[in-house]
Amino acid sequence: MAHTQKLSPNRFHAYMASFSKRAFGTPSAAVLSIVIFGALGYWTWLAVDWAIFRAVWSAENVAHCTEEAGACWSVIDARHRLILFGLYPYEEHWRSTFACLSIIATVIISCFPATWTAKRLTSLWVAGFAAYYLLMEGSLLGLAQVTTDGWGGLSLTLFLFASVVLLGMPMGLGLALMRRSEMPVVRSFAVIVIDTIRSLPLLTTLFTAAVVVPILLPSWLEGDKIWRVIIAFSLFFGCYQAEVFRGGFQAIPKGQFEAGKALGIGYWKIMARIILPQVFRHALPSTINMVVVTFKETAIVIIIGFFDVLASAKAAFGTGEWAPHYMEVYVFVGAIYWTFIFSLGQYGEYLKGRMALSTH
Amino acid sequence: MKKNTTLAIAVGLAGAALAPTASFAQSATVQQIMDRGTMLCSGHNGSYFGFVEVNDKNEWKGLDIDLCRAMTTAILGDPDKAQIVPLSWAQRFPALQSGDVDIIIKATGWTMGRDTELGLQFSLPYFFGGTQFMVHGDLGISDSSGLEGGTVCVEAGTTIERISANYLQTAGVEHTMVSYESAAELRAAYLANRCDAFAGWGPSLAVLRATELDNPDAHVILNDQLSSEPIAAAMRQGDEGFVDMANWTIAALLIAEEEGVTSANVEEMAATPPNPKVARLLGVEPGMGERLGIRDTWAREMIAAVGNFGEIYDRNLGSESPYNLERGLNNLWSHGGVLYAPILD
């Protein structure tokens, strides 16, 4: 889409000409093209017909959701607040909405190059998180307190995702640096941590944090379940991200570090000014990949009893009235995931383009 | 608190015939719930039809939730003091042991392993569900003998498979057993008429019939009960007082149904109790509360808040729910079921 818009009319014609030549150049190619495009068109029509033309939209019209009708979006109309906010108290949903928006805004603002200084990014994220927490928890703002048991839906998924990436990134960088350290103790410590966490399934790690830790620790040290899980998840993310950074480090010739040293520049300055900017650039594609995977992996917390967007979707069609319409609920949740992940991916593409410019 | 429990046990051992004046049976868990001001019950990470669900106002509902609210009312006097903690199936027992919840009321079967190795204690069973057959209505079958020469479909590797095979073999019914890897496949096969009968957990069959099949009346759940599994509330071992609390919550709900006390007429009944049992139940005569270490009127408040057992059942699984599940085994003993309350003396 984006590409065709950029083309000038002439180039568009040339593009179409080349397309028709390739698709319909020979009789057999033409037949194949017609079959494939015909099938694609038919399936698209079926999907659109189901999702839009024959669909029932409002909750009052649920009686029309018979087998002949298409998608029954009534279920979304009636239950979208459950999918978005989970078990959060109904009257307080505005708080969950604003909390969600504050996280989304934080992520969007930090995508702009203007915010890319350590000071700005840090203050932005601290502010975004504080806003989320204060709104959701409420007691510090003088609102009704909602404990983390009541958090759920999309707002919980976003919060888990943002905190895991936020905590996991520095952890990953720290571990990657430790792994490259010249001090054997530090180096082997990093190796043991990274390899141990990576050899355990994520589910086991999270289950341990959520279920086993409270049995082992004294209650004053336990903390809230959500924080234990976020820390465990971040550690998992950090260990993988450390390996991603390691790949970035390996792409940089050793000579650069040595040259810096020869000029009498200190370790931290060499890292901050010479090595890391290049490391980030090399590690970017895999980092975006990690972030996308993490967004999807947050759904695993359903196993340890968190009411994330997928769990609340299951609850949304989990009553007798709405049980036949599980398909619509899954499509809706799929669309939510797609929107976030597609945006992340597109942003990654933009970053790659930008960084490629600065390389040469 | 431990001291008190030990004391209670010591007093009990010293002479059961003596009437001790100390507040006995007051349990550590009940005390904890009172101090905390909320009771922590198990929810679900999603929904389990009829037992644990979420309504349009993002609030929990269902048979198990109502039992939790009933017990919360008994202890704290307010059903809204129940705090439902979402838990997965795998997580429920560790969560109970670590104190994340006070009790598990979550369609949990009473098994020997759980009772002994896992260190749990179970309440009186409040629900019985077992393996049953669902058949296509046009076959005109009313019991399992009609399955002679037919095809029975089950989910592979479940106890249901073994139970059905045993049952039909014992009854001398020739049949073909076909097992499917997943519940969805099984459902599709049954709907495509590849099976005459669908063997499954009774309540699940009823829910399936009510919610996913186009024409619920075209399918019949046979009366044969192949097995019966008691569903009960699970608690941590070592707090007998709390088990008493759970047992008498369930008992009071059953006695209320037996005596015709409902959420609608409970105040009326309390004003003019028809018999001494109801007077005792509703706290008009003392005794209900003291022996559990709580208020005498707990059962009255509880019935006013959530209704008797029959009302809870009808609202969540029975005639007033989309599932319309027959009481069957889950009726009072006096109506052909197997539910009964201990004696209220």
What would you note in describing this structure?
The complex is a heterodimer of chains A (about 350) and B (about 350). Chain A is mainly α and about 350 residues long. Chain A has 15 helices and no strands. Chain A is globular, with a radius of gyration of 25 Å. Chain B has 13 helices and 13 strands. In chain B, helix 6 links the parallel strand 8 and strand 9. In chain B, helix 3 crosses helix 9 (about 240-260) and helix 3 (about 65-75) packs antiparallel against helix 12. The relative contact order of chain B is 0.15. At the A-B interface, helix 4, helix 9 and helix 14 of A face strand 2, strand 4, helix 4 and helix 8 of B.
Short characterization:
Chain A is an all-alpha fold and about 350 residues long. Chain A is about 75% helix and about 0% strand. Chain B has 2 domains: about 1-125 and about 230-335, D-Maltodextrin-Binding Protein, domain 2, CATH 3.40.190.10; about 130-225, D-Maltodextrin-Binding Protein, domain 2 (3-Layer(aba) Sandwich), CATH 3.40.190.10.
